[in-house]
Design a protein that fits this description.
By secondary structure, the chain is mostly helical. 61% of the residues lie in helices and 0% in strands.
């Protein structure tokens, strides 16, 4: 029997794992489906989303491609813009 639990979305997402979880839920995909897209196991996706550890460099590029943006680059640009304003 499958256990159901409420998913808590990080607001606003701060880590790459937070962004991954938000995008996965936005696209209504399971961790298994995202794992297949990224070429990892569903356990690895679960660990990334829970922020146990970040995706390693080789996988990070795939995660960014899945997201369609680099959240760390966007955060840096936002911080620089607020400093110059």
């Amino acid at each position: 029997m499958r256990k159901w639990h409420r998913t808590v979305l990080p607001s606003p997402p701060k880590t790459l794992g937070d962004h991954l979880k938000c995008k996965r839920l936005e696209r209504k995909l399971s961790q298994e489906q995202v794992a297949a897209i990224l070429g990892v196991s569903d356990t690895v996706v679960s660990f990334w989303e829970a922020n146990f550890y970040p995706p390693p460099y080789g996988r990070r590029e795939r995660v960014i491609a899945f997201l369609g943006y680099d959240p760390e680059a966007a955060e840096s640009a936002s911080q620089q813009q607020s400093v110059t304003s």
